[in-house]
Amino acid sequence: MPDQSSGHASARPASLKALFWAFNWLALQGFGGVLAVVQRELVDKKRWLTREQFVEDWAVAQILPGPNVVNLSLMIGQRYFGLRGGLVALAGMLCLPLLIVLALATAFAGVADSAQVQGALRGMSAVAAGMIAATGFKLLPSLAQNVLPKQWCWALAAITFIAVAWLRIRLILVLVVLGGCAVLIAYWRLDARTLKRP
Question: End of a domain among 141, 157, 177?
């Protein structure tokens, strides 16, 4: 298999049907969050994206309104099959999970206030948080390809964590201020590199 460090994905969805079922499978695995699952399936297994492409697409998906993974499914589907691909990927992401959630909501309506059920859900949230953290660490090597120096990336990550987790600053403000600064600095550095080329 080709090395993904080349910056190019080595595969693509074979058809709209393959795209639909891939996102359906992603959604069915995404208990408590799908970041870890999406990264493993689309980057490591299917190789539809490189790690760098995944990090870039995920960053864009996060700053757009709406659920991150829905935004990502639209972006990936559109990349390979245009508007039809975006809609098919979105349908795959939402179709079966919606039916399952409706069935579970109906089945568990009477026990939702149970201490055992609430405890089980808290346990699942801890696992989901661990999966997200593990995926974040797994994606750290992609920072080597970033236009910003590694120290700046670490500083921005630390400031973002402190602002959101400790200071409880609203996410939209953190995105606008820190994300805006990062975009401007990256743009300036890319522009400077272009000017230096002969």
Answer: 141
Residue found by looking up tokens 């995404």 in the block: 30
> How far is Cα 58 from Cα 70, in angstroms, rounded to an integer?
11
Q: What is the pLDDT of residues 157-197, one digit of tens each?
A: 899 989 988 999 998 899 889 988 888 988 888 877 676 66
Token pair of 144 as six digits: 């080597």
71 vs 108: CA distance, rounded Å: 29
For residue 86, the one-letter residue type is G
Range of the domain at 159: 146-198
| Whether residues 180 and 113 fall in one domain | no
- Tell me the torsion sign for CA atoms 133, 39, 3, 182: negative
CA torsion, ordered 123, 128, 129, 131, to nearest 10 deg: 130
d(CA 182, CA 149): 11
Cα separation, 36 vs 129, whole angstroms: 10
* pTM of the predicted model over 0.70: no
